[in-house]
């Protein structure tokens, strides 16, 4: 089963006089992992090329490789150079397929070493990749969470964006004997980063929050699993969103290609879901829209070519 690891949650306040200074409208790009594609970078290259041609605040890339692609340094370096060469600022959200099922040449699990290398390569400083450098706040600035450089926060206008490492395949909960240390330690970091992000947005009186991750923590757990790896983060997220006065938009990678894909944002009360599946989505932020967020495929057909 392909494993991917990260999603985008957007929490937006209704436009009221209580908001801080009004912010301008803008748009950002969100690139998802294809469910089915050849094992090469062609879909990612095309998405970056198309988004480079658009006027975007930044582009969030939800994973840089498929699970059936190799985990060696050569591919990691090639994808790093691809993201670093983009014209827009690029924030990589690691997915499970980037690291969590990697094996070394002898077939042994190599996931933790690959995660460490991924962090060193893609999250080496406090700025985004790409030509337009976006200043970022990483969870790793807190000594207790110094490992979690991939958990990132940044602002655009009156919207706070934040990302989390949540692999799609049951949040990488392992059923092997012994302490599930990677999952347990990351769960503590996740809880702290979610709490801090919502608190920061409330303190700044932001108009919205955007959370980026791979897996969908709000989805029902798959049948037959021994333990729901998303149970705690789901409960926390729903509680925080309920107390935050506004809309919530969760953007995550598509993992079930047997179900029809939803188009655009699907709202369930104050909670919206946006599913990514290859290509890229253009998410517009409009202060005059009661929902604040709207989304459409990034590459629109050229009417002159019909």
Question: What is this entry, summarized?
Answer:
This protein is α/β, with parallel strands linked by helices. The chain has six helices and 13 strands.
Number of domains: 1
Q: Give the strand tally.
A: 13
CATH class: Alpha Beta
Mean pLDDT: 86
Estimate percent helicity: 10-25%
Please give the CATH architecture.
Answer: 4-Layer Sandwich
- Helical element count? 6
> pLDDT under 50 segments (min length 5)?
1-6, 12-22, 301-306
- Please give the radius of gyration in angstroms: 18 Å
Kindly identify the CATH topology: Purple Acid Phosphatase, chain A, domain 2
Beta-strand share of residues:
15-25%
| Biggest sheet details | 8 strands, mixed
Shape: globular
- Class computed from helices, strands and strand pairing: alpha/beta
Distance between the termini: 39 Å
How do the helices and strands line up, and which of them pair or pack?
Layout: E1 7-12, E2 26-31, H1 42-52, E3 59-62, H2 73-84, E4 90-93, H3 96-99, H4 111-122, E5 137-138, E6 152-156, E7 159-163, H5 181-203, E8 208-213, H6 231-243, E9 247-253, E10 266-268, E11 271-276, E12 280-285, E13 293-297
Parallel strand pairs: 2-3, 3-4, 7-8, 8-9, 9-11
Antiparallel strand pairs: 1-8, 1-9, 2-12, 5-6, 6-7, 10-11, 12-13
Task: Provide an overview of this structure.
With 306 residues, this protein is of the alpha/beta class. It has one domain: Purple Acid Phosphatase, chain A, domain 2. The chain contains six helices and 13 strands. The strands form two sheets. Strands 1, 5, 6, 7, 8, 9, 10 and 11 form an eight-stranded mixed beta sheet that branches. It has a five-stranded mixed beta sheet with strand order 4-3-2-12-13. A hairpin with a 2-residue loop joins strand 10 and strand 11. Helix 5 runs parallel beside helix 6. It is globular, with a radius of gyration of 18 Å. The chain starts with 6 loop residues before the first strand and ends in a 9-residue tail after the last strand.
